[in-house]
Design a protein that fits this description.
Layout lengths: L1 H5 L4 E7 L5 H12 L4 E4 L13 E5 L7 H10 L5 E6 L4 H13 L4 E5 L8 H6 L9 E4 L2 H10 L3 E5 L5 E2 L9 E6 L7 H5 L3 E4 L11 H17 L12
Helix pairs in contact: 4-8
Length: 242
């Protein structure tokens, strides 16, 4: 464990038994926090197969996450205005993998996820992404609101998908530089994230079901943006036009 931390291996979380103690455990916790790796204290029942002796378990990431600057640099390297997907608390690894796969296919330059209370880049996510996680930068941030503010300073418009939005997605002129924000399963966008969006759009629901799966809904919005990009030579950001 300590060697993995010192070697800089991509770790998404460290579980520590509530009864674990000693200098080694303390050093592991300190190093993890220094590197920004979440540390969660859990009951002994989380450990099995002889792991009780040490009381510390690292959950490895399928791939290392990057910084927001790396996502913006990926757009610059392709000579394109930034097109970014921001996920507000997607917890299901299958959904996260599907979102990464769809985003990569739509030409998104990178995905931004919260470091806490959300799915990380696990092997299950990598499998669900069908390999897309190897080609698309994923940035993990501690504070999603600050991340949105950073994107705005970089010149991006922030558009949130919200089922209560007054405007239907295809009524908005959505072109990069653009960040599309979608919420997690069930709860949607958090209040602070919603308030930091420049524009909110929704999908029209004509049946009895109130909402779609987050990966399906996101795919619809992203590919409408792809359609709009194909019909223009310059991105102007969201407007009231169709």
């Amino acid at each position: 464990m300590a060697e993995a931390l010192r070697a800089g291996r991509p770790l998404r979380k460290i579980l520590v038994s509530r009864v674990a103690h000693g200098e080694t455990v303390r050093q592991i916790i300190q190093e993890a926090r220094r590197r920004g790796i979440p540390v969660q204290f859990v009951e002994r029942s989380h450990f099995a197969g002889g792991l009780e002796a040490q009381g510390v378990l690292a959950l490895a990431a399928a791939r290392a996450t990057v910084e927001i600057e790396d996502v913006l640099a990926a757009a610059a390297a392709r000579g394109e205005p930034p097109f970014v997907l921001v996920l507000d608390g997607v917890e299901d690894p299958a959904n996260l993998g599907a979102l990464i796969r769809t985003a990569e296919g739509a030409g998104v330059h990178g995905v931004i996820i919260p470091r806490h209370r959300a799915a990380g880049l696990t092997s299950a996510v990598a499998r669900a992404s069908a390999g897309a996680v190897e080609h698309l930068p994923v940035a993990a941030v501690t504070n999603l609101v600050r991340a949105l503010e950073e994107l705005k300073r970089a010149g991006l418009w922030v558009v949130g998908a919200d089922m209560e939005a007054p405007r239907v997605y295809h009524e908005a002129h959505l072109l990069p530089p653009l960040a599309v924000v979608v919420g997690g399963e069930g709860r949607g966008l958090s209040r602070l994230v919603r308030e930091h969006c420049d524009l909110l759009v929704r999908l029209p629901m004509r049946g009895r079901i109130a909402s779609l799966n987050v990966s399906v809904a996101t795919g619809i919005v992203l590919y409408d943006i792809v359609r709009q990009i194909g019909g223009t030579s310059a991105g102007l950001g969201p407007s009231a036009g169709t």
